[in-house]
Amino acid sequence: MASTGLDGGRSRSARVVVLGGGFGGVYTALALERLAAKKGARVEVSLVNRENYMVFQPMLAEVVAGDVGILDTVSPLRQMLPRTQLYVREIEAVDVERRVVVLGAGMTPRRHELEYDHLVVALGNVTDFRDIPGLPEHAMGFKTLADAVRIRNHVINVLEQASVVRDAEVRRSMLTFVVAGGGFSGTEVAAALNDCVRAALGDYRSLRVEELRVVLVHSGKQVLERELTPALARYATKTLGEQGIELVLGERLVAASPQSAVLGDGRRIATRTLISTVPSSPNPIVERMGLASARGRLECDGTTAVKGCEGVWAVGDCAQIPMRDGSSSPPTAQHAIRQAKVLAANVVASESGGHGRKSFAFTGLGKLGALGHRRAVAELPGGVTVEGQLAWLMWRCIYWAKLPGASRKAKVAVSWLSDLALPAHPVPLNLGGGRGARQAHYEPGEVVFEEGEVGDSLFMILSGTVEVSKRVGGETRQIGMLGAGEYFGEMALLGSSSRSASTRAATALDLLVLPGSDFAALTESMSEFRGQFERIAGARAEADAARESSSGQGRRPLR
Ligand SMILES: Cc1cc2nc3c(=O)[nH]c(=O)nc-3n(C[C@H](O)[C@H](O)[C@H](O)COP(=O)(O)OP(=O)(O)OC[C@H]3O[C@@H](n4cnc5c(N)ncnc54)[C@H](O)[C@@H]3O)c2cc1C
After folding, report:
1. What are the φ/ψ torsions at residue 26 (nearest 5 degrees)?
2. How far is the CA of 318 from the centre of ligand 1 (A)?
3. Looking at the predicted structure, is the pLDDT value of residue 557 above 70?
């Protein structure tokens, strides 16, 4: 690398690479562009992000509710940052020794390396479901635009399905929507979902409001108790309850399956919709950088420089930046934006010998949280609190004013105004595409499929045990147990018939589920593969027939 040091002395502009296109990264690049234009700072800025847009996360819940259009909450980065080189790529690694960032190949055949003089890490954090069984397979996160669209599509599809289901138990589970996490994002998505499904009921004559359940599970005694004053947290909890949201407080989600959300006290809530905003974890790229961190956030000094690594800076949710009172700057958009300005000024200052570096001194402008039904809570500087409709109006005015760009503001204003007269209708944006193989988790005792149901998938057991049973002469008999490495569900697929036995998780069970269409493609193109399944299915069918004729108990089951 041709760099001659960080404090100037190089003949070319300093290469600043910003990782992440959220509030922290975008506002850093924006501030650097301004410093270059107004003060002649010699910086060449590149920004890497997965998408070519920035999402205005505070309004994501409005996308779920259908109060704003899907693209109203996003700002195109090429328009916002005309002088920044944008790389829309996956960041795969950072090598702080060699001062390079490794980008994924994208549509090209090779990975790409970006050299830097200054690195700005603004990768936010991630919702990490790995430590809770069934969450990676069955819960939806709520952090990105894709999450918000997925939730809205799923909820509308569930309403469609439920409207024609007669079985009361299945219908009840379909009309139960569970959200885990009672912080700002969990509370806001639960409130938006509640508003959305209640408003949608007008379009589904067969569904009754008494059948709906929106459940918010939170480990604390009140929602938003960590974020707001005790009085506001109490108000928020009461308001959500009054809107028909069922609050399960002092409890945690400990597992999930396709059919249920399992709580710490053993309770199972039958549901087909689980949204979880917890737990939050460090971004894996940040973790792998091996730099000083505190609870997964990069440890910075007050200038936003990462401790112990010259030339590396951090901002936003992935950074631990001290505030004047010694506490750590909270992970909010308003703090990320102010940190970005300080960071940009300090990068430029360090290029001219390090004089005039600034320290982060922002203390916050207050907190706002929407509660649905045109209610909100607001905590303003000086201890002033506002609640109810006035707070909701403030919420809308303040976030509208903060939306980046005049066109975004115009679009959101039109959406809100038209929503007053023309409410949103439950129309999903299904983009099609095959489901492909996926994993599924079942808790002990849960049914995988019942005898007589349509057979649409093959199941391979990754871990755990499956009990197989069959109705013989009016009674249900266990006819076998299957374990890791075995599979089931092939007979109905090979014979295009319904399930000939029932299967249930005997222990916690992890499965690989291959859709019937993929199974058909494999068996049609690979005769050996088909032959293998046919041989085993034949043997299983014979065992079944023998069992039925003797009414005895066989060793290998039918599926
Ligand atoms: C639903 C919701 C509501 C919120 N409401 C508010 C609110 O009302 N007020 C408030 O102040 N704050 C709010 N916040 C918090 C606020 O949005 C965050 O504090 C802020 O977005 C942090 O900005 P950031 O730049 O650090 O991270 P992020 O905004 O998360 O940006 C990180 C970026 O890095 C990209 N990225 C990550 N890994 C990679 C990779 N490997 N390769 C390429 N790109 C990558 C991501 O795609 C993303 O664009 C809310 C957050 C959520 C989720």
Report:
1. -65, -45
2. 9
3. no
